[in-house]
Amino acid sequence: MFFDDLSEGYTFETASRALPLEEIVSFARSWDPQPFHTDETAAQDSPFGGIIASGFHTMLTAFVLTLEADIWNEASMGSPGMDALRWLTPVRPGDVLRCRGRVVALTPSKSRPDRGRAEIDYEVVNQDNIAVMTYRITHILRRRG
User: What was the pLDDT predicted at 34?
Assistant: First the structure.
């Protein structure tokens, strides 16, 4: 979809993806090596009572799910940033995540008529429909030619 194809309030949902223990630990060893992400014994004594996924792993999983949904890929011109990122509930081994997106604002560029800004609120939920993460991204999207 291009900028012009979206409307405020437009919603979409992605497919889902499970996060197995091995993937959680492997990701964390490379990118977030805290004991509650990498060491099952140490994680038992943490405030989480067991291994949890890194928030960054959750965020990147959500991003890939969104790309795979192919909503705005064709029009994407990048993003100036993300706001209001919140990790709400720990993601545990075996949890199955999916994303919901809702367009909250559309602003055509005044200086570059070939594009606009789409602000999209995302909610990442697990298999029990419990929100584990929320965030807002401003996407720069190409307009129809």
Answer: 96
**Max CA pair span of the chain:** 57
3-state secondary structure of 72: coil
Q: Which two tokens stand for residue 78?
A: 């990048």
DSSP 8: T
Decide: pTM greater than 0.70: yes
| DSSP helix/strand/coil, 28 | helix
Residue 133 DSSP class:
E
CA 33, chain centre distance (Å)? 21
What residues does 101 pair with on adjacent strands?
A: 12, 122
Comparing CA positions, the residue from 23, 31, 14 lying closest to residue 95 is 23
Helix, strand and coil in the chain, % to nearest 5: 30, 35, 35
